Amino acid sequence: MVLQFRETQPSEWRHGSFVVSTDRERLDVPKLLAMLRDTYWASDLEHERLVQAIEASLTFGLYADSGSLVGFCRVITDGAMFAYLRDVIIDAAYRRQGLGSLLTDTVLHHPALANVHYWLLATRDAHDVYKKFGFKPLENPGLYMVRRTTETPFQTADSGSPAADPTRHG
Ligand SMILES: CC(C)(COP(=O)(O)OP(=O)(O)OC[C@H]1O[C@@H](n2cnc3c(N)ncnc32)[C@H](O)[C@@H]1OP(=O)(O)O)[C@@H](O)C(=O)NCCC(=O)NCCS
């Protein structure tokens, strides 16, 4: 069973010459995989793991006028109390022109997430992107625990073993 928080239908917002869309079907998965594999947290990401993560998340694709994918992030949420923002990525050629902020702003204003009052994310060096939206360092990190499993290949439900490593950050 795939856990997922679904919109009744995909949403789309135009910002100048860019469009943000929650339509999973529109995502260029091979390009997204290449972009994510270039990050510090997902260099070994498998195609199948990404596909399942997309299926079980509220995804936000950022598209240039040409229609090509230039940014992405996804939200894992119950739509009421808690949301985890992760895999935020802007194509290297499009960075430092406000698109990461635009994407984050769009996520935080999604009507289906209006009730969420607890957001979490992890970042190594992009704190400034999120600070202006009210994200702060954990006040009491000792309250939090993380479980990481050993690095094992992603396995589908059909293969009879549970999916590995659900807790890596990025
Ligand atoms: C982090 C990332 C998504 C930011 O996207 P972006 O479009 O370049 O961000 P913006 O142009 O909206 O920048 C927003 C602010 O954060 C700062 N900033 C952007 N990226 C930063 C980084 N990597 N480190 C520190 N500060 C950063 C900018 O200076 C800017 O500040 P300003 O508005 O006061 O000028 C993008 O650099 C990226 O994809 N990096 C690789 C993947 C990554 O690290 N993702 C974050 C995981 S949580």
UniProtKB/TrEMBL annotation:
GO terms of molecular function: acyltransferase activity, transferring groups other than amino-acyl groups
Origin superkingdom: Bacteria
One protein family per Pfam: Acetyltransf_10
The N-acetyltransferase domain, residue ranges: 18-150
Alphabetized InterPro entries for the sequence: Acetyltransferase_Butenolide, Acyl_CoA_acyltransferase, GNAT_dom
Sections of the chain in a coiled coil: none
Classification via PANTHER family: FAMILY N-ACETYLTRANSFERASE, PUTATIVE (AFU_ORTHOLOGUE AFUA_6G03350)-RELATED
The protein's name in its UniProt record: GNAT family N-acetyltransferase
Organism field: Acuticoccus mangrovi
Top-level taxonomy: Bacteria, Pseudomonadati, Pseudomonadota, Alphaproteobacteria, Hyphomicrobiales
